[in-house]
Amino acid sequence: MTTKSSPLILALASLKGGVGKTTSAVHIAAYLAQKGQRVLLADGDRIRTATTWGRIGDLPFTVGGMGTLSRASEYDAVVIDSRGALEDADLIDLGQSAHLLLLPSPPDMGSLDGMVQTVEVLQGAGIASNHYAVLLTMVRPGNERKLSDARAALMDASIPTLRQTIRLSEAFRDASVAGTLVRDVKGNSLAKSLWAEYERATVEVLALAEANR
């Protein structure tokens, strides 16, 4: 008799709101579901944006509160959208329990300073650098210098960073309001290409996470 393997666990965390954490959690979960996996998105954020997103729309995965983690074994993959400004102990717990902790951040120096502080907490707890990675989000088109500077700062701090970035676009807000995925937003010429960015980012995430299983 074969034994069901434990689910893949991906967690997202950030020190502050408005960095694309929930948007990333929703689209990563959707990509996994598109590949035929049974996916749970556990919404731990105080605002419950993911829960509202799922309630008003028809997302291809299950959205529940943190209590639903007790049923994680029923799923192939679990995506945890943690609350903002986690206490150090909670951040460390996520870093230890997830196969990969994804840290979304815009490429501005204020956000990156917070990212360095977050990583220092993880490093202090002995969490290896292959268990976390930064996803640069809300990247303004045409601002390659800022993006290049952000990558250089992260490299100098020895913080792993995904190659794929996510552009800033009103299409993500429209998707949230409509309870749909960005690929299904009507009347926005960028919708499909924005979805493709999350597809490529998730492929990177999975490669990193699977190496830790």
The structural domain count equals: 1
Q: What fraction strand?
A: 5-15%
Strand order of the largest sheet: 3-2-4-1-5-6
Give unreliable regions as ranges. none
Classify the secondary structure makeup into a structural class. Answer: alpha/beta
Form type: globular
Summarize the structure in words.
The protein is α/β, with parallel strands linked by helices and 213 residues long. The chain has a single domain (8-208), classed as Rossmann fold (3-Layer(aba) Sandwich), CATH 3.40.50.300. It is 42% helix and 14% strand. It has helices spanning 21-34, 49-56, 88-97, 109-124, 144-156, 170-178, 191-210, and strands at residues 8-12, 39-43, 62-65, 77-81, 100-105, 132-136. Strands 3-2-4-1-5-6 form a six-stranded parallel β-sheet, sandwiched between helices. β5 (100-105), α4 and β6 (132-136) form a beta-alpha-beta unit. The longest helix is centred in the C-terminal third of the chain and has 20 residues, at 191-210. The radius of gyration is 16 Å and the shape is globular. The model has no long low-confidence stretch (mean pLDDT 93).
